[in-house]
Design a protein that fits this description.
By secondary structure, the chain is of the alpha+beta class. Helix content is 20%, strand content 26%.
Length: 123
Amino acid sequence: MTQPQTQAVRPKVTYIKGDLVLFRDVERFWLGLPGHTFVGRVERSWTHADTRKVLYDLVELSANRHRAGIDPDYMRLLPAADAMHDIDSAPLSEPDAGAMTPAAVAWLRQHLGKDSSALPARP
């Protein structure tokens, strides 16, 4: 007996200028070439005259290169919550600041300076 195949359903997302996205150069991906996935910033959206599909122009952040006509089927939003997870989950009760990620330590130093009285008391 064969198992029914399931297919992931991607919710419809509309990107706006300034959104950070992960996007894939689909041709490089299907050809098995390296360097097919990039982080980009949305610059604008536009509708293709023939297909009426909404496409996006991005700036590839690693190379500061403009990429035009990116299909949103090959884009995914990079949520701020994921980027800030290490800070949000930093072990503030750890006596060793080295146990925290550098980003969490930097955030704490910036917000607390030399005054550690704002830290919560240890239970």
